[in-house]
Design goal:
- The complex is a heterotrimer of chains A (about 300), B (about 400) and C (about 350).
- By secondary structure, chain A is mainly alpha-helical.
- Helix content of chain A is about 75%, strand content about 5%.
- Chain A has a two-stranded antiparallel ribbon with strand order 1-4. A two-stranded antiparallel ribbon of chain A has the order 2-3.
- Chain B has 13 helices and twelve strands.
- The two termini of chain C are about 15 Å apart.
- The chains are: A mainly alpha (about 300), B alpha/beta (about 400), C mainly alpha (about 350).
- Chains A and C meet through helix 4, helix 9 and helix 11 of A and helix 6, helix 10, helix 12 and helix 14 of C.
Chain lengths: ~300, ~400, ~350
């Protein structure tokens, strides 16, 4: 029983990191219908900037973190302005492909500046676990769980009550209608990209802190989270937040119960199988907006 | 038109690539290099390549091979196997290299049949035991004990340590490895040897590529009462396992392989790495051995800002061995694949100045050394705790 | 000089060649390609062979993604199925390539059918994730079915042979790969002149309308998956024959993304686009390497520094291409052709 509970709890907290990264995907998809394949590089870039500020320039961690967020916001805007804006009106698949190109470009920039070796990341989380009943949890994951909760509240309030948030929802609903209502769609897109970049930077710093070391390989996380956001529904904030823990639990249960039976490797595959089964019942994810098609 | 301009640029680049190749002098020995500088293993592949490169530069500065300069035609294949193959064909057929310095499991396994056919000595950073059997792979070489010998030696240490710490019965051991050729390479040998010497291998856990958390695997190990575990993945993975083990309060003593255990593990895992043991076939950078001075000088000269560790030493030590092979081949007037192979197979107890164990190759046995050095992290330093010498037996040959 | 639309019948409209001239030019070009290997070095032959294999794979992917509108991330998995099927049939059973290649294709088609089933309910990016699942499931199977696939260590494939003929080097392989490529290109080009191909396009453009017009959407979606994976399976088979050793490491998920890149950069729903895309994506790293190699000749030690530039240029080229020519290289080609056709009176 303790075995099961530990797996369950671990799945939830590890899943919270998936949710955090997933939020970045959803914010972009929701307002621009682009799946951003460069999300992983955004994570890595954010973490590297924070690392450089703290280690090389000796900025206290808190301020370094804030500066990282500011930088990420700027980078999000820049990305939108230079790469995405010229593509407004092009087919969605070209937009997706352009993010793949962006991912290569960012990877090269990251390797050019910081090299490929594994760099130690400052110990931002104590190694001592926190105990929930008899079950230990890493502090890093707890903080990630907390950030997800905070972000959920912020996003909910933002989309419900702020002018920009409502405008973003309107843009997601129909770009043409929003334009005719006087909403600047360009500004909304820039906003979406910078929010996503900020969320990614938070995720990147947390991930690097949990892993203790940082190298370009962390970018795989971008790809890993795609099934999570799809499970939740690509355009749903709540979906991303629920999808993460579900994926985490699936992984952990598969790892705990199936791995010993099949000789390992099920931890990676089994969640995908279940994912497809879930999707055949809910084709737009758990919370995704169901498209009603008219001819 | 843009298209035509691009075409012109490409043509110009291609011409630039072809022309200098034709202008090469006669007094050069061409050696190929297939490295991973940007791919998934670039964290260790790049320092390895730099070690090789610097060793060649230093050799050339010291007069080369009897006045002939070594020309290292190295390139990055980004751990993409089709690119490694293309690069190999270019090096062998177009550039006519006499031998190749390769890199990891990906390229070495994909090319192992070809190097035998083309008679091109191929040095790898992969130490898989089958490569040491010349009856199967006559042109493959590496400079370290095989992965299997490494694990056997570590199991010997486990047995000793268990007895020393007053354990009764058989120590319970787990193997944690990636689901790939590198991860699985020594596992079968380790299980067999464990059964022979009375070490109980109770669990095998697979760590997926790029995993983030190993809790489920470690919980299973905890249930099975594992006391020692060998983590056969690279440094990031080792560090993650150590973190999760700390979280779960496991008292398992961990060990790791040459690509998981180096100075960077200390840097990344910090106090968690304390007490971890590991196989170190190539000494940490800066170890006071006779051969280290020249490395430190080269390091200062070529890239003082880069951080270097045992991976850099590994590239350098491997290069030293084949440079000696080239010397022998040059002396015999046989600067070609078979000539270099023959010269390398004459090396007996060749010393790399303490960078690695002395190596011996014969035409029937490419196991370079049977001595495995085991280190332990003590007070944030890699400290040698012993050399484990395996008998050069027939039944372990190539396994 | 023909400048205008002279087509009067439906058959005319559907013809592959507008006039005899392109036919002659194409024949000439094919002959040129057939003679080319006699002058190419082994390295360039390898590149040429890989381009052909990439073309086959890209055309296969284009059938399902470009023509039927179903995004697939499973290309690497289907290549692996074709490759390992070839390894088993050619290596273990010793069958000749005339049997092995089509059988590998058929086997892959069957696997493709199975993974096409979710397309019954899923669309767009949601379907893409189902194909991503296909990738991981195939990878898991290939890694763990040691007796058949050699497991993680991979498996060797003997040279392709048929009736005493041994295709043991790249030059001989070219004369196998090239005709197969050309044959499949003609097959696919013609496929979209038939009822089946038109049904695919109808599904892509508007699946509900297609249903109303009497196209059995699910059946044709499955058929599209089958045809596509057949072609990709053939590419995998050729790849195995050319590589001679394959292991799961040959088929990473990034390979599937590369193929998607080929199809998009070349042009979705265009055979010519697949050809351009495959050439471009295969040749770009080689060109960049040649360029950086030549630079390292002048400044030794530069290799390590310039290595990331290669990847950066790749990304940059993709971005610039999409910004300035989002419809792909095929569209650009048609612009150029139209420009020269009417030159100098382009209005």
């Amino acid at each position: 029983m303790e075995f099961f509970l530990q797996l369950l709890l671990n799945g939830i907290v590890v899943g919270s990191i998936y949710s955090l990264v997933g939020l970045g995907f959803v914010v972009i998809y929701k307002s621009t219908s682009v799946l951003n394949f460069a999300q992983g590089e955004f994570l890595v870039l954010g973490a590297y900037i924070c690392l450089t500020l703290t280690v090389q320039y000796q900025v206290p961690f808190f301020w370094a973190f804030l500066l990282t967020l500011v930088f990420s916001a700027l980078m999000g805007i820049l990305t939108e302005r230079l790469i995405l804006r010229p593509m407004i009106g092009e087919p969605v698949i070209s937009l997706i492909m352009v993010t793949l190109g962006l991912s290569s470009l960012l990877k090269a920039i990251i390797q050019g500046i910081w090299g490929t070796e594994l760099r130690p990341f400052p110990d931002i989380f104590p190694a001592e676990p926190v105990r929930i009943g008899p079950l230990p949890v890493s502090q890093g994951y707890l903080i990630s769980l907390g950030s997800v909760a905070v972000l959920l509240v912020i996003f909910t309030l933002f989309f419900k009550f702020t002018r920009s948030g409502v405008a973003m929802r309107a843009t997601a609903f129909s770009q043409q209608v929003s334009l005719s209502m006087g909403i600047s769609v360009k500004r909304i897109f820039a906003l979406a990209w910078s929010i996503a970049a900020v969320v990614s930077a938070i995720g990147g710093v947390l991930l690097a802190g949990i892993r203790g070391g940082l190298d370009g390989a962390m970018a795989f996380f971008g790809l890993k989270v795609i099934p999570v956001v799809i499970l939740g529904g690509l355009d749903s904030i709540a979906g991303a937040i629920v999808g993460g823990p579900i994926m985490g639990i699936l992984e952990n249960l598969a790892g705990g119960y199936l791995d010993p039976l099949v000789g390992g490797g099920a931890k990676e595959v089994a969640p995908f199988v279940i994912l497809v089964l879930i999707l055949t019942i809910k084709p737009y994810g758990l919370f995704g907006k169901i498209k009603i098609e008219r001819v | 038109m843009n298209v035509r301009k691009n075409l012109a640029a490409i043509l110009a680049a291609a011409a630039a690539a072809v022309l200098p190749a034709q202008a090469t002098a006669q007094q050069e020995i061409k050696v190929g290099g297939i490295f991973d500088l940007t791919g998934v293993t670039s964290d260790v592949g790049k320092p390895f390549a730099q070690g090789v490169q610097d060793c060649v530069a230093v050799t050339n500065d010291a007069g080369g091979i009897n006045g002939k300069k070594i020309k290292l035609l190295g390139a990055d294949y980004a751990y993409k196997i089709d690119q490694a193959r293309a690069l190999y064909k270019k090096l062998v057929n177009d550039d006519k290299v006499v031998m190749i310095q390769g890199w990891g499991t990906g390229d070495t396994e994909a090319l192992k049949d070809f190097v035998g056919q083309d008679k091109i000595p191929y040095f790898s950073g992969s130490f898989a035991a089958p490569l040491s059997d010349p009856s199967k792979f006559p042109y493959n070489f590496f400079v370290a004990p095989t992965y299997s010998e490494q694990l056997r030696s570590w199991l010997d240490w486990v047995k000793q340590d268990y007895a020393k710490s007053g354990g009764k019965g058989k120590p319970k051991v787990a193997f944690m490895f990636g689901d790939n050729a590198y991860g699985k390479a020594p596992i079968a040998a380790g299980k067999k040897y464990g059964a022979e010497i009375g070490v109980d291998v109770v669990d095998e856990a697979v760590l997926p590529p790029n995993f983030q958390d190993a809790t489920s695997q470690l919980l299973t190990m905890k249930q099975k009462g594992v006391e020692y575990a060998y983590i056969n993945v690279t440094t990031t993975g080792v560090s993650l396992v150590l973190r999760d083990a700390k979280k779960l309060g496991l008292t398992v003593k961990f060990g790791s392989n040459p690509y998981g255990f180096s100075e960077s593990l200390v840097a990344v895992a910090g106090p968690l790495a304390e007490g971890v043991t590991g196989v170190v076939p190539h000494v940490p950078f800066g170890t006071p051995v006779p051969g280290m001075a020249v490395l430190e000088a080269a390091h200062q000269k070529y890239h003082p800002t880069d951080k270097h560790d045992a991976m850099y030493v590994r590239g350098w030590a491997t290069c030293l061995v084949w440079v000696e092979g080239l010397r022998g081949a040059e002396k015999a007037g046989q600067l070609n694949g078979p000539g270099v192979k023959a010269a390398i197979e004459k090396l007996a107890d060749f010393s790399t100045g303490g960078l690695a164990q002395s190596v011996t190759y014969t035409p029937t046995d490419h196991r370079p050394t049977m001595t495995t050095s085991i280190y332990q992290i003590q007070g944030g330093k890699l400290v040698k705790i012993g050399d484990y010498i395996m008998p050069r037996t027939k039944e372990w040959f190539g396994l | 000089m023909r400048c205008g639309d002279f087509r009067q019948t439906y058959a005319d409209d559907m013809s592959l060649f507008e006039s005899p001239l392109p036919r002659v030019l194409l024949a000439g070009f094919l002959v040129f390609l057939l003679v080319l290997p006699q002058f190419a070095t082994t390295y360039w032959l390898d590149v040429l062979n890989r381009i052909c294999i990439a073309i086959v794979g890209a055309v296969g992917l284009n059938v399902v993604t470009g023509y039927t509108g179903l995004i697939s991330l499973g290309t690497a998995a289907f290549l692996a199925v074709g490759g390992f099927a070839t390894a088993a049939m050619a290596g273990k059973a010793g069958l000749p390539f005339v049997i092995v290649i089509p059988l590998s294709g058929l086997l892959t088609a069957m696997v493709g059918l199975v993974f096409g089933i979710p397309s019954l309910r899923l669309k767009g990016l949601y379907l893409a994730v189902a194909t991503l699942a296909a990738h991981y499931i195939v990878e898991f199977t290939v890694t763990h079915w040691d007796s058949m696939t050699g497991g993680v260590n991979g498996i060797s494939i003997p040279p392709a042979h048929f009736a005493g003929l041994q295709l043991s080097d790249d030059r001989k392989m070219f004369y196998l790969i090239f005709p197969v490529t050309v044959g499949l290109l003609f097959f696919t080009k013609n496929l979209f002149r038939t009822k089946v191909g038109k049904a695919f396009v109808a599904i892509r453009d508007q699946d509900i309308s297609a249903e109303v017009m009497g196209v059995n959407v699910f059946r044709y979606k499955l058929l599209s998956f089958a045809v596509s994976s057949f072609i990709v399976g053939v590419a995998g088979s050729l790849l195995a024959y050319q590589a001679r050793i394959i292991s799961p490491e040959n088929f990473p998920i990034t390979l599937a993304i590369d193929y998607l890149g080929m199809v998009i950069i070349g042009g979705l729903g265009s055979i010519l686009g697949s050809i351009f895309g495959a050439i471009f994506i295969t040749l770009l790293p080689e060109m960049l390497r040649l360029a950086t190699d030549s630079m390292s000749n002048y400044w030794p030690g530069l290799m390590v520094i310039v290595a990331p530039i290669k990847m950066g240029v790749f990304g940059l080229v993709v971005i610039l291409f999409l910004i300035f020519e989002p419809d792909g290289m095929a569209a650009r080609w048609n612009h150029i052709k139209a420009y020269w056709k009417l030159y100098p009176f382009s209005y």
